[in-house]
Design a protein that fits this description.
This protein has about 270 residues and is mainly beta. The chain has three helices and 21 strands.
Length: about 270
């Protein structure tokens, strides 16, 4: 009898707080699969909800970051078919570096979950999040992939999805925007031939990469690291500019330059204008 009571109590609790998954169907192409996942089952009174754009790539293939590098193209994401959506903000996980024929690209392989912030126009109405995407994927050759998918997020009392914790972890893994105990950018100097970053990394500089972008200008050279002779957790990092630019300082004058440092699990992104 005691077991029966416990079973009934557990069943009652389980059914009183249902947790489901609001996902789109997988959109399947030759070398990539794409779907939308949401952090809520119902919107409640929130004017913004979290979600994710999930990519699964075929073995050996990769897709590109917002800055693709010397070759490839970033994903083009169109949300125009959405309904009751004010805007969609895509957050970009830190990428890995690829080298092909002496050219460098930046992106993702295997699988990636790109966090989304979806601003809702009217939380009392159902919301349709619909995506049409052009995604360039590459192995030895590059192939454009067109995908479309959508997910309906019902109105109603707020309820989290089984995806919620996974989406929160994806947000937590994004590059920090402020200096912290793990990574610090102490200054950024743009010279005629290179961008120089003075930085601190608690993990040291054995496994570090730096990505520099400004609009359509991508600086893809492998960073040259000079350790501080008194503190091996500090270094001067030099990233040479593209060979076709005579004066990098003049080219970047008055425009925003974004620097992302990745040191193992730690990442930091900052933007400066000179």
């Amino acid at each position: 009898m005691r077991f029966l009571k416990l079973f009934l109590i557990a069943g009652f609790v389980g059914f009183s707080t249902p947790v489901h998954a609001v996902d789109s169907d997988w959109a399947v192409q030759d070398y990539v699969q794409v779907r939308l996942v949401m952090g809520v089952d119902t919107i409640g009174d929130a004017d913004e909800v979290k979600g994710g754009l999930e990519l699964r790539l075929a073995d050996g293939w990769h897709a590109y970051w917002r800055m693709p590098g010397d070759s490839g193209l970033p994903p083009v994401l169109n949300w125009d078919r959405s309904d009751n959506v004010e805007s969609v903000t895509v957050e970009w996980p830190t990428p890995m570096r690829f080298e092909t024929l002496d050219m460098f690209g930046f992106g993702y392989k295997d699988q990636v979950l790109m966090p989304l912030r979806v601003a809702v126009t009217d939380p009392t109405q159902d919301t349709l999040l619909a995506l049409d995407a052009d995604i360039m994927v590459c192995e030895e050759i590059c192939v454009p992939q067109k995908v479309s998918t959508s997910v309906l997020i019902p109105a109603g009392d707020a309820a989290v999805s089984v995806n919620s914790a996974r989406i929160d972890r994806a947000f937590d893994r994004l590059a920090a925007k402020e200096n912290n105990e793990a990574l610090r950018i102490e200054n950024i100097v743009i010279g005629p031939e290179a961008v120089v970053v003075n930085a601190y990394s608690r993990r040291g500089f054995d496994n570090i990469d730096v990505f520099v972008e400004s609009g359509d200008l991508y600086i893809t050279a492998i960073p040259e690291i000079t350790l501080n002779k008194d503190d091996d957790k500090r270094a001067m990092i030099r990233i040479a500019g593209p060979e076709n630019i005579e004066n990098l300082m003049e080219e970047l004058s008055g425009v925003e330059v974004r620097v992302t440092i990745v040191a193992g699990r730690d990442a930091l992104e900052q933007a400066v204008t000179y």
